[in-house]
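Researcher: We're teaching a course module on how sequence relates to structure. For the next exercise, students receive a sequence and then see the predicted structure as C-alpha cells, so they can try to spot secondary structure elements on their own. Here is the exercise chain.
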Amino acid sequence: MENILKRIVLSRGVEIPNSATWHKDQLILSSSMGIISDTLSHDLHEYLSFRHYFVHAYGFMLEESHLEDLVTNILMYWLQFISETDDFVKE
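Model: And here is the predicted structure for the students to work with:
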C-alpha cells in the first residue's frame, strides 16, 4: 500500500516528506490529497502503529486480541484501499 500511495503522490508532482515519520506523513498527505479517505487513513494507521511496535518491541509482548482484529479486518481495508485509489486515479 505504501508503494502504491508513494507512486500516486509522486505522479502528481508532490514530494513525500523525507523524515523519520515519512510513513505517517504519507498517510496524512494521501488523505489530504483525496487519494484515500480520512477514515481509511486512520484505519491504516493502526497497521502502521503495529508495524512500528513489532519492529521495536519483542514478539512476546504482542497482544493476541489486537492481532486478531488486525488480521480480521485487513481484507476489508485492502478492498477499500483498492477502490479509493482506483477512483482517485481515474479522475
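Model: If you want an answer key for the exercise: Helices lie at 2-11, 22-32, 38-56, 64-90. The chain has a mean pLDDT of 86.
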